Amino acid sequence: MGSASPTELPALKTNPKFIFFTDFDGTITEQDSNDYITDNLGFGQAPRRKLNEDVLYGRADFRDAFREMLDSITAPLDQCIEVLKKNITLDPGFKAFFAWAKENNMPIVILSGGMEPVIRALLAHMLGPEEADTLQIVSNHVATREGKKDVNEVGGWQIVYRDESGFGHDKSREIRPYANLPADERPVLFYAGDGVSDLSAAKETDLLFAKAGRDLIRYCENESVPFTTFNDFSDIHATVKDIVEGKLNVKEAAVGRK
């Protein structure tokens, strides 16, 4: 079999030597947008945190837990997005990293367990529409709930998962075709994440950045997955820049909890 084409693997279009995969909520942003609307427009923080713990320790699938969280929200989708625009902020180091990545032919691919309309609206708000449109986003979708006419009415929307997996969107499926490329064609693959939706992606790349103080670190330590921590994208920027410039390799960078 021949290797995959750029049409099949969009991040290969410019023949990059490095590809940066990343979660969105709580990674590119400082807060998790889904947690925020569940806590403030849905059934609240305590039930949401209990469901997150159940997923982390294998007592529930992410897919079922996340749907339960989102189903507790009856606010119209457009109102949810407006609330999020006022309360979700961009990681302070992301804009500089984004600009540097573009200059150095390193595609950034967002792999999210969230919903594409929400992500696109937030990125357009935080980066500007033109810059946001350059980012590849692979995530779940939103549809009108049965018996309703529109997502922008009370109780009108529901999540539509990308696949049939227990994650709803198994991020590893997007990364694995890149990881399986022949050695002479395969870019170095990075991934950044923070939480339970990142568990499927954690083992798939050459270097995993796990956000300090978040659930993904516990999973990596429990499963002996090599990683390094970051506080914000300025940490990621410094490490990735050193690797791109040949000052550091991915094994040296995977120092675990700092």
How would you characterize the overall build of this protein?
Helix content is 40%, strand content 16%. The protein is built from eleven helices and seven strands. The chain has a single domain (10-253), classed as Rossmann fold, CATH 3.40.50.1000. Helix 9 (215-223) links the parallel strand 6 and strand 7 (228-230). It has a seven-stranded mixed beta sheet with strand order 4-3-2-1-5-6-7, sandwiched between helices. The model has no long low-confidence stretch (mean pLDDT 94). InterPro entries: HAD-like_hydrolase_phosphatase, HAD-like_sf, HAD_hydro_PyrdxlP_Pase-like, HAD_sf.
Helix/strand/pairing class, anyone?
A: alpha/beta
pLDDT < 50 runs, ≥5 residues: none
What percent of the residues sit in helical stretches (DSSP H or I)?
25-40%
CATH class reads Alpha Beta
- Using the 3D structure, state the CATH architecture: 3-Layer(aba) Sandwich
- Largest sheet, spatial ordering of strands: 4-3-2-1-5-6-7
Beta-strand share of residues: 15-25%
- At CATH level 3, the topology is Rossmann fold
What is the string of helix and strand elements? EHHHHHEHHEEHEEHEHH
Please count the helical segments. 11
N-to-C span: 42 Å
Rg measurement, Å: 18 Å
**CATH H-level name... which superfamily?**
HAD superfamily/HAD-like
Q: What gross morphology would you assign?
A: globular
Keywords: Hydrolase
Organism: Remersonia thermophila
Pfam family, one: HAD
InterPro entries: HAD-like_hydrolase_phosphatase (IPR050849), HAD-like_sf (IPR036412), HAD_hydro_PyrdxlP_Pase-like (IPR006384), HAD_sf (IPR023214)
